Amino acid sequence: MFISFEGIDGSGKSTQLTMLREWFESRGSGVTVIREPGATLLSESIREILLSTKQSITPTAELLLFSAARTQLVEKVIEPALESGSIILCDRYVDSTTAYQGYGRGLDLTAVQAINSIATRGVMPGLTFFIDVRYEQAQQRMQFSEGGGEPDRMERAGREFFNRVRDGYLAISQQDVKRFVVIDGYRDRASIHFDIISEVERRLHTVSS
Question: How many other C-beta atoms can be found within 10 angstroms of the C-beta atom of residue 159?
Fold first, then answer.
C-alpha cells in the first residue's frame, strides 16, 4: 500500500503521517516512511539546494531538480519497498510538483505532467490525503511549532503563491477523486487522524474482500 500526504507548508500533513505510521506499527505492519525531496543521498543533497535561501532558482530549474530527486527516490527506495510488500508513507510526492511548480509557479501544466510521468516511472500512490488549510492558518502553525524560526526558500514564497498552490491541490483532487481524499485540516489532530484511519481501514477492507 502506497499512501502520500499532501498540503501547503504548515498544513499538519507530516504530523498526520507520523500518527498513521504509529498506527500501522501498532498493528505489526512494516512501514517505509519517506519524504520528498529526500530519502536517498542524492535526493537529500538536492533538497538542500532547493530549500536554501542563499541562491535564486528559476521555476523550470526548480521543477527539474524536484523531478531528479523524485526519480532517484522511485528507483532506489519506492520500487524496492513495493516489491518487498512494505507499506509506504510518503510526505509529499508528485502532486506537490503539479501544485507548486504547475499552479504555484505558473509553469505549463502539460509540460509538468510529462516530466512527472518520466520522474515517477508510472509509480503512483493508491491513496493520497490532502490536508486542506488556508495560508493564514498554516503560517500560524509553523510559527507555533518552529518557534518563529527562519523560513526556507519555498516557505518564503508568500500568500498569493500558496493560495495558487492550494487552488491547484483542490483542482487535482477533483480530477482524481478515487485516489485523493480531501481532509478538513482546521480540526484537532485526533479528529483528522480518525478520518484518515477510517479511510485507510475502508481501503484495506476493499482490497481484502
Answer: 11
17 vs 41: CA distance, rounded Å: 22
Tell me which CATH code domain 2-208 carries: 3.40.50.300
What residue segments make up the domains of the chain, in order of their start? 2-208
CA 198 to CA 43: how far, in whole Å? 32
pLDDT confidence bin for 124, thresholds 50/70/90? very high
Partnered with residue 33 across adjacent β-strands are 89
Contact indicator for 116, 97 with CB cutoff of 8 Å: yes
Half-sphere exposure of 48 (CA within 13 A, CB side): 5
**Euclidean distance between CA atoms 50 and 69, whole angstroms:** 10
C-alpha cell at 67: 523531478
Burial of 57 (0-12, 13-18, 19+ CB in 10 A): middle
- DSSP strands (E only) in the chain: 2-6, 31-35, 87-91, 127-132, 180-184
Q: Give Cβ neighbours of residue 12 (< 8 Å, ≥ 6 apart).
A: 131, 133, 141, 185, 189, 192
Neighbours of 198 (CB within 10 A): 10
Over the stretch 39-83, which tens digit does the pLDDT of each residue have?
A: 999 999 999 999 999 989 999 999 999 999 999 999 999 999 999
In sequence order, which residues have a C-beta less than 8 Å from that of residue 84 and are 6 or more positions away?
30
